[in-house]
Amino acid sequence: MASSPQVHHDRDADCDRCDRHANLNGDSKTHLPKKPRLSFITHSEILTEFSHHDTSVARINNGSFGCCPASVLEAQRVWQLKYLAQPDNFYFNELKKGIHRSRTIIKELINAEHVDEISLVDNATTAAAIVLQQASWAFSEGKFDKGDAVVMLHYAYGAVKKSIEAYVTRSGGYVIEVPLPFPVNSNNEIITEFRKALERGKANGRRVRLAVIDHVTSMPCVVIPIKELVKICREEGVDQVFVDAAHGIGCTDVDMKAIGADFYASNLHKWFFCPPSIAFLYCRKSPKLSELHHPVVSHEYGNGLAIESAWIGTRDYSPQLVVPSVLDFINRFEGGLEGIKKRNHETVVEMGEMLTKEWRTNLGCPPDMCASMIMVGLPACLGISSEMDTLKLRTHLREKFGVEVPIYFRSPKTGEDGSTGYARISHQVYNKVDDYVKFKDAINQLVRDGFTCTLLTK
Question: Whole-prediction pTM value?
Answer without folding.
Answer: 0.90
